[in-house]
Amino acid sequence: MRNYASHLTIGFLAVATVFALALPGCDSSTEEEVDGGDSSDPTETVSVPLGGNAYRTRGAGPDEVTQKGIMTWKNSESTFSVYVKLREPAVVTPRLRARAPEGEESTVRLSVDGYEEEVRVTNSDYTSVAFGETEIEDSGYVRFDLTGVEKTGDEFVEATDLKLEVPRGTSVHAVQSNEDNNFYWSRRGPSVHLNYDLPDATVEWVHSAITVPEGKDPVGAYYMANGFDEGYFGIQVNSEEERRVLFSVWSPHDTDDPSSIPDSLRVQLVAKGGNVTAGEFGGEGSGGQSYLTYSWEAGTTYRFLTRAEPDGEGSTIYTAYFYPPEEGEWRFIASFKRPQTDTWYEGWYSFLENFDPGMGHIERKAHYHDQWARDTEGDWHAIQQATFTGDGTASSGLREDFAGGIEENTFYLRHCGFFDDAVSLNQTFEYPSSDRQPPSVNVDDLPN
After folding, report:
1. Where is this region: Disordered (predicted)?
2. CATH number of the domain that 202 lies in?
3. Same domain for 28 and 56?
4. Which of 138, 150, 189, 334 has the most C-beta neighbours closer than 10 Å?
């Protein structure tokens, strides 16, 4: 698992291959057979690769989903869940393409929409074993749960696909191809953004706040408050034990390897606050990064303050402050100098992202509010509008569980969890402006 959030949230534009319609075919019972069928057959079979559509939703230990499917399954406590979207109710006959260890046999249970059945897998070659017919009464995302019942060896089965026999013409939505690494991106889930309309003034400071509802803060979440054209600043959940306040600035040198950045293009740390860790990052672009290990809590509002100021010598200084309410004062995170950059604050946005592909089945949500921009004359401007957009996973239709808009007099973002009440992208939402007061912060008295 990566420690840092992806900054391809904005830039990821891979063309996702989405299995939006069921393909014609018939069920195969052995590896050599392929889906063929003819138009007179009232049913067709859809193959759903586990590598892009399944998660381990229960259990511990080494059991996991890889891009090939379920390749390690030792624990009887493990549940693997496969998520598929049916655009209309349908009668479905599920089949699991699986194999048992050589000379062993296993019993696997499938549960879906109140239906439950067990099958025995004895073949050491991949075989499609059939469960019974079941009726899915509602359209939308459907969860198929697989659990191990009995095994004679160390492993239950290896499994690559869930095959669904459905009435011909049924519209089935799942990730079918790993082209462009789609299995990885789909399992992470869609990232969504709020792009703010800045005032017609030279902006030096921006202020915003985030409130994460209780229970909407799973591992892998990054709630980014103050993004800009050259970096981002927010809070994240790195593990069950660790949370961070994260502030990063990209180098103008385009590379995933920070060691390859010429000295003249390196982002330089100017200063950092107490207990803040600072260094470089790479892997998805490169630059300077800082973080404060801090156990922020869902249900509490946290404030963020970010500054961009040209130094007059061809670089820009970016500075971030964080306000934990229990401390009652602003905490200095860090200042970075970005070379070959002469700009004030531009491209303000927020986003919601999951950076752990094993946690893309769990919903996240946050309220983004109190957005203010301070110009170089010292005047605060209330931000009233934001445009709702998504990354390639969302905009291509790879996943359809994302939403944003106005709620409880705030902007909000929501994603993952395979919910059905999605909100269309590229809408502009207007923030209620009555009774809003500028933030009570004297920027001249901030720690540095």
Report:
1. 28-63
2. 2.60.120
3. yes
4. 189
